[in-house]
Input
Amino acid sequence: MAKQTRLTFARCGITDPLSLADYEAHGGLAGLRRALGMKSEELVDEVKTSGLRGRGGAGFPTGIKWDTVRLAKADQKYIVCNADEGDSGTFADRMIMEGDPFTLIEGMIIAGLATGATKGYIYSRSEYPQANTIMRAAIAAAQKAGILGAKVLGTGPAFDMELRVGAGAYVCGEETSLLNSLEGKRGVVRAKPPLPALEGFMGRPTVVNNVLSLATVPVIFEKGAQFYADFGLGRSKGTMPIQIAGNVKYGGLFETAFGMPLGTLVNEIGGGTASGRPVKAVQVGGPLGAYLAPAKFDTPFGYEEFDGNEALIGHAGVVVFDETADMLGMARFAMEFCAVESCGKCTPCRIGAVRGVETIDRIARGDASAIPLLTDLCETMKDGSLCALGGFTPYPVMSALKQFPEDFATTAKEAAE
Output
């Protein structure tokens, strides 16, 4: 705990999650009260100055997204919180909803004030029953206290919100699939343009932000944009709640400023593997994130720094594997996962993932000539898929192939023998 920089999670584990008195005693609503005295343009500029970027995976500047919705002309605008936390080894969204739900509510209200939105929705997962129960109770408490409703805190414009629960499809974590599901339609990806910021929920301008993005907004307005921007590395401003899981001695959530080397997170904070064997690979960013070998453990935790190593930060889930991991098997799992979870809207993802499993099986049977075919297939999926499900599946596959070629060559050799 002493090594953490807790901004988003400052109250988690300290306050009663459903006590508004506790929440206010620990700085809650201070950001909202300040925001109520600012114009919408000033609110957006504050978020831009903070450098906050989407914590759900894409890392898009939050202030720019808000400004697009603010400037859009419409009779109704919406704030949608993406709480469909489906990545392996991630649990930060659930921890916020269970441990400090009012910070998410406050962040959504500020987003509404900044953009002119008067209605918000939290899209959660059916796999999170406790988080959903607490979130509903927190929304009811905020409505009863006049924080939500016809006049925010009795003085501001209207803003109200509700919780909606999805059935648990991985692809509904993608913002346009989420919006379709929220509207009661099948959760399939929409072609872009139009962007959700212009034509989102019910065809209206919509901010779609991750739980962590919205839950961080109150601290930015409480302490000031520059306070937040002073943490981090390069264009990766502020802190990131990093979720450490897998074959690791000390798993859990560790919030720190961007810039800590990956090796420090794995070996010092995580304590190495639970099995005591050497670390072989770390997958960052969920099931579609790249595998990183110990040779890349000096990479600082930052968006551009990871991108330079053909990797993703994603939702900041860090899953550790020891030397017994079969990286060809892990590459196959990535393709199989994509095939199972694909919404079927685009051919590169729907067909490419199935062909990917077949091609990796050929390599496992000793057909080394299938390796160039796998590389070509990954390029097609990366460039041609409608969304990140098909577009990012090549990251774990190609990183396993490039950094652990011996696992692919050994398999081929053993099959030949």
Observations:
- Residues 129-144 form the longest helix (16 residues).
